[in-house]
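Please study the protein below:
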Amino acid sequence: MCDRHEFVFEFDKAYNHQLIEKFEASPQHQLLEDSGPPEKGVYALYHAGQLVYAGKALHTRLNRRLAEHYRKIASRRNVDVHDMTCRFLVIRGDWFVRAAEDALIQNYNPAWQTSGFGSHVPGAGRPGIRVSRWDQEYPPRQ
């Protein structure tokens, strides 16, 4: 029997398609220290109109995570926080938040995603620790 008679619902494709559609329909906001609601969800950061980072707020809240990014960017050279916007979606359910972050990263392949920008790595900045690409391109203001 050929496989053209089988139907396998691809939940991940359906979820990803609907998520991206909803995400792109959501409004962009200026990245501010008080952006976002106190809810779980996913978000993306845009620099000069280009999506550069996608993340999740799972064990924290969107407003807190976006505020962390605002402060980090505002404290750096070679990037102006006024050139930053954000977009976010509130999502209920931990699995759905994780799946949504993965869908955003897979769909957009953001430039800052693997740069060290969003990491909370213990020991970062200590002597002997490798300097991330983010820290090299956007060093702290003196």
About this structure: The chain has a mean pLDDT of 92.
